[in-house]
């Protein structure tokens, strides 16, 4: 099933010239925290990614991700549903071209 690759296809698309949140052309400083639209987009992406990702250590599905979006880079963490509750994490950074969304990898 190709769903596994769908989030990464979205990632590649978002890292290109596609303006996902409309900040291009608007004077914003890099230290400004993510706006609501950015937080919403990151939540949607990682809810989808976590639902389609299995733990690389034990193969268990991942729980809902927790997102800390009070500053850049945005930190994402999710634990697997296995007995060991392996931790997976990812960062999201703002780049001149859009958002750079990393894959959820085991921490
Ligand atoms: Zn695990």
UniProtKB/TrEMBL annotation:
List UniProt keywords, sorted A-Z.
Ribonucleoprotein, Ribosomal protein
Please tell me one Gene Ontology term that the record gives under cellular component: ribosome
What highest taxon heads this organism's lineage? Bacteria
Which species is this record about? Nonomuraea africana
Full protein name: Ribosomal protein S14
């Amino acid at each position: 099933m190709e769903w596994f690759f769908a989030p990464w296809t979205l990632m590649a698309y978002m890292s290109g010239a596609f303006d996902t949140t409309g900040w291009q052309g608007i004077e914003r400083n890099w230290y400004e925290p993510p706006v609501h639209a950015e937080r919403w987009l990151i939540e949607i992406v990682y809810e989808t990614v976590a639902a389609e990702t299995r733990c690389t250590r034990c193969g268990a599905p991942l729980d809902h991700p927790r997102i800390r979006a009070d500053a850049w880079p945005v930190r994402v963490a999710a634990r697997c549903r296995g007995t060991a509750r392996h931790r997976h994490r990812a960062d999201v950074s703002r780049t001149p071209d859009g958002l750079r969304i990393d894959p959820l990898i085991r921490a």
